[in-house]
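name: query_chain
kind: protein
chains: 1
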Amino acid sequence: MSKRGSDFLYHWISDHLADAPIIDPVLMVIDMATDAKRAAETQGILGQEIDEEIGTVYEFIMRDLR
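structure:
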């Protein structure tokens, strides 16, 4: 992942991760990954740029939640 892509994803997740208990973690990860990729693309950051180094956004979010 490029520095720009990783910075965006770290900030996006910290801004959008709910403080409430997670009821359905699978659905939450899918929704967050989809929303993060859309938000990144609106800022000119392609999903491929994010996925290059970290794997998929899904994997990144799962690791971040541990």
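note: Residues 25-42 form the longest helix (18 residues).
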